Structure formats: structure tokens, C-alpha cells
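Entry for the shared binder. Reason: the reviewer on the internal report wants the predicted structure included alongside the sequence.
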Amino acid sequence: MGRRVDVQNARTRARGDYAQALAKIEADGICPFCEAHLPKHHTKPILFRNAEELPIGAWESLGSAYRQLVAEYRIEGATLILRTGKTDFTGASVAHLHAQVISGGRREADSEFIRALVGFKAKP
């Protein structure tokens, strides 16, 4: 899969000590998902690195978790983003399967768009 962390992508917006933590992981040459390092870097272990590795039942679990979030937080509209693969393509700071639910407020006259980094494109 190549590199596991991408410090350059972590610096796309301010995130406290996050970029420094990734820089240390990169400098140490470790995989933050390997069994030996997982407990140090994750409180909720990640079981799959790529969408292609997910068994059918995991997709059902993801759908169930999404429905639970919608019900629990009374979400009236949301975007579900799945990101996986090489960070040079996704803009991710860590190469792993990442699911994110983004929910904004109702559009008002002074509303702004929510922006999410999902990858890169060539400039026109």
C-alpha cells in the first residue's frame, strides 16, 4: 500500500498536535495499524484498511451504524463519505478505510457551504 501516514495532508488545516503525531509515526517508520502499535495510536481499533477487504456483513454493519446515528442525533440530512487508498489521491492524512458522516444545518440566507477534502483535481 505504500506509506501509511501523509504529514503533508495533515497540514491542510489546523488540527492541534495531529501533524506532529503523524510526523513522529513517519520518522519512527512504524505502521500505526500494526498489532504492536495499534493500542498506542488508536482507542478504537481499525479492523480493515481498505474497502475491498470488508466482508459483506461489515457493509451491513456500516449501514446499521449510519441509521443509528441518524436516529440518535435526529439528523435531517447528511453526507456519508468513505475514503480509502493512497493518500496522494484521497487527501487523507492516514491510509486506512475512513467513514465520516457530515451533517450541516438548514440552508439560510447567510449560510456557507461545508467543505471536505476528498481528493485532488487538476486546475482548469
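Summary line for the report: The chain has one domain: 7-102.
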